[in-house]
């Protein structure tokens, strides 16, 4: 590389860090598009399905794993971090001061040693996005690998910031152990609200089934609770939900066992729920509808939201629970009068939309983290640092003033 003057040298020095990552991204995209990278796609499919029982695609004959993974990697990771957007993540700003030579600069500053813990059922997307975001902002991350050693490593290594994506119980433990130096994208209470307008009944039923039971209901934003206006009770929505749920079989990998909760504990929980006045078991062991008055009694609320954790009443429930995602195929006033995390609104609203083109994360919590956008990277992996430049000049007739 030929450097003709000081400005070129300075520009090369400042941009070198980002050029390295851009080159890495270009090589990554090249490998994704290389057919040789996907010769063992059947083996990769088997490994993936052994980790989590879900149907990767609809038909082995019609859609190849190569196409699915290439689309995923390109849409979720490559498109977010492509081209020259990386260098703008740490963009600073300047504000004029009170006198000549004074100027304040605000910088996005890396934390330095950081940790990424993502013990979740998306073993590719979340670690990749958070790891690259941490690197792009200039940090030195440790990516969680072994649960047997991580709890010992964190207190001793004392990272300046830890990103955690997982259960609320572990998240709260990390807050205490790491003295609050954490960003959380933990499990929340994800619900769907059906307003008074009844339409597209088949589509709404299908979305509800997908949000609740796809990936065995173990996705981070799986539908936890369904609120519906009384108008929907006059339709066949509930019977359609039952029919759709009963289609799910282990044979074709669209449902599977939940290994983190025992059968006895689930059955015990359901039996306790059925003791609440007005409750009714619609199908399986999942309770879909509970009379409002009894739901909001303190003891019943804790019971209903344990493990399976009219509009004013919805707001009361919001105040009592941690909500990270909400789907609202109904009225806009739900959005304006709530403080939730990522909210999907409209006819096609789904609580389990992957963050391919939007921010995904909680709101209303100072510890909240995000994923999926440039703003998420800046929030999670950098802090604000203000540097005040006061270079003078000192006035020629300046004299030492009286002490104050």
UniProtKB/TrEMBL annotation:
It comes from the Eukaryota. It holds the Pfam family Aldedh. One of its GO terms (biological process) is L-proline catabolic process to L-glutamate. GO terms for cellular component: mitochondrion. Keywords: NAD, Oxidoreductase. Residues 103-149 form the Aldehyde dehydrogenase domain. One of its GO terms (molecular function) is aldehyde dehydrogenase (NAD+) activity. SUPFAM superfamilies: ALDH-like. Belongs to the aldehyde dehydrogenase family. This is Delta-1-pyrroline-5-carboxylate dehydrogenase 12A1, mitochondrial. The lineage of its organism: Eukaryota, Viridiplantae, Streptophyta, Embryophyta, Tracheophyta. The gene is ALDH12A1.
């Amino acid at each position: 590389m030929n450097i003709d003057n000081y400005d070129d040298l300075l520009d090369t020095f400042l941009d070198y860090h980002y050029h390295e990552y851009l080159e890495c991204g270009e090589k990554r995209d090249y490998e994704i598009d290389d057919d040789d990278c996907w010769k063992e796609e059947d083996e990769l499919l088997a490994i993936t399905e052994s980790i989590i029982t879900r149907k990767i695609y609809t038909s082995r004959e019609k859609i190849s794993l190569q196409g699915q993974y290439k689309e995923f990697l390109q849409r979720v990771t490559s498109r977010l971090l492509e081209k020259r957007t990386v260098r703008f993540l740490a963009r600073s700003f300047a504000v004029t001061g009170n006198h000549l030579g004074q100027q304040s600069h605000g910088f996005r500053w890396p934390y330095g040693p950081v940790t990424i813990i993502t013990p979740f059922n998306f073993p590719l997307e979340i670690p990749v996005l958070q790891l690259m975001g941490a690197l792009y902002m200039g940090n030195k991350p440790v990516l969680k690998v072994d649960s047997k050693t991580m709890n010992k490593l964190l207190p001793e290594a004392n990272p300046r910031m830890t990103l955690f994506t997982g259960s609320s119980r572990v998240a709260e433990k990390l807050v205490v152990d790491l003295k609050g130096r954490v960003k959380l994208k933990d499990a929340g209470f994800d619900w769907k609200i059906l307003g008074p307008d009844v339409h597209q009944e088949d589509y709404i039923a299908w979305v509800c089934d997908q949000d609740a039971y796809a990936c065995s209901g173990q996705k981070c934003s799986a539908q936890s609770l369904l609120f519906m206006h009384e108008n929907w009770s006059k339709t066949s929505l509930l019977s359609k939900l039952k029919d759709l749920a009963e289609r799910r079989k282990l044979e074709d990998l669209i449902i599977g066992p939940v290994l983190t909760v025992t059968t006895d504990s689930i059955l015990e929980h359901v039996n306790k729920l059925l003791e609440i006045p007005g409750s009714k078991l619609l199908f399986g062991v999942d309770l879909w509808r509970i009379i409002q008055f009894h739901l909001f009694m303190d003891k019943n609320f804790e019971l209903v939201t344990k493990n399976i954790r009219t509009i004013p009443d919805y707001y009361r429930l919001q105040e009592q629970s941690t909500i990270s995602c909400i789907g609202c195929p109904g009225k806009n006033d739900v959005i304006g009068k709530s403080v939730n995390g990522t909210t999907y609104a409209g006819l096609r609203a789904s609580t389990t939309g992957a963050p391919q083109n939007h921010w995904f994360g909680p709101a209303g919590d100072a510890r909240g983290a995000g994923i999926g956008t440039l703003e998420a990277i800046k929030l999670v992996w950098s802090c604000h640092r203000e540097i005040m430049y006061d270079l003078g000049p000192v006035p020629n007739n300046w004299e030492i003033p009286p002490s104050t």
